Every structure is written in structure tokens, then in C-alpha cells.
Amino acid sequence: MQLLFQRLDPSAKTPVYATPGAAAADLCAVLKAPLTLAPGGRAAVPTGLAIQLPGPQFVALVCARSGLAVKHGVTLSNGVGVIDSDYRGEIRVGLVNLGPGPYTIQPGERVAQLMVLPVARPDFAEAEQLTPTARGAGGFGSTGRA
């Protein structure tokens, strides 16, 4: 599969896979100057890139970089970014600093990962009831505990 992309800023970096086994490609910040996120601070960081997915049978997901999250508390402000197949605008990465101190994002720094996955688009059909299972309606924390 080939994913078409457009460089909207000449300094934008092509997404690359860090290792041969990587499932997602790195996205880098396109900034004119370093950007400091205060604790609790949020920003939409531009990547200078737009993509064209092959069709509605695919979605691109913007995922956090575990190193930023674990080491510095900087993660995605929306959990996971969803890029629909008909979106042609710039990919911007919503970041939030959950850490105790400020964090400075450098121009060109890897700030997120882009993963492309197939999408199942079911037709929704309302039912009077659903087939019962052993778990049933057990929710948060209901499995694995006696």
C-alpha cells in the first residue's frame, strides 16, 4: 500500500518508521521556534503534512509517543487522533503536559506516531436484547478480581 502525502511546509519531515518492526511512523513538529508546554498546558502542534487515505476502508490514527509520555508526561490531549479518509487538511497533534514541570518541544522533534488501519463500517441494527455472555454487563474492573 502507498500512502500519498503532501508537504504543506518545506521544513516538514516525511513520516518514517523508526525500526523495521515499527507499526507506526513518527510525526515531527514543524515549529519556527521551540514551544514550551507548562504543566497542564495544551497545544496543537503542526506537522506540515496532509495525507490522502485510499478510501473509507482505512483510517489513520495519531498515537502518543511512549517516551514522551513516560519520561515527561507529554501525551495526546484527545487520547488518539482520528484522521478520516475524506480529511485533506494538515495533521496537527494535540499535546498536553501532564508532568510536574514545563516541557519544551523543539522544531523537528518527534511528537506522535501515525498508524494506518483498516476500518469495519457495520450497518447498525437495533435489537430488543443482545446475546448473553458469562461477563454480561460487568464493566470497569469487573474481570480478573475475585
Question: Can you describe this structure?
Answer:
There is one protein chain. The chain has 146 residues and is mostly beta strands. It is 5% helix and 34% strand. It contains one helix and eleven strands; from the N terminus they run ββββββαβββββ. It has one helix spanning 66-72; strands at residues 4-7, 25-28, 35-37, 42-46, 49-52, 58-63, 74-76, 81-83, 92-97, 103-105, 110-118. It has a four-stranded antiparallel sheet, with no helix packed on it. Strands 4-9-7 form a three-stranded antiparallel sheet. The protein is globular, with a radius of gyration of 19 Å.
Helix content: under 10%
| Helix segment tally | 1
| Number of strand elements | 11
Instruction: Evaluate the radius of gyration.
Output: 19 Å
Average per-residue pLDDT, rounded, comes to: 95
Biggest pleated-sheet summary: 4 strands, antiparallel
The helix/strand order is: EEEEEEHEEEEE
Give the terminus-to-terminus CA distance: 46 Å
What strand line-up does the widest sheet have? 2-11-6-8
> What is the 3D shape?
globular
Strand percentage lies at 25-35%
Q: Which class do the helix and strand fractions yield? A: mainly beta
Which segments are poorly predicted (pLDDT under 50) over 5 or more consecutive residues?
none
What is the secondary structure topology, with strand pairs?
Blueprint: E1 4-7, E2 25-28, E3 35-37, E4 42-46, E5 49-52, E6 58-63, H1 66-72, E7 74-76, E8 81-83, E9 92-97, E10 103-105, E11 110-118
Antiparallel strand pairs: 1-5, 2-11, 3-10, 4-9, 6-8, 6-11, 7-9
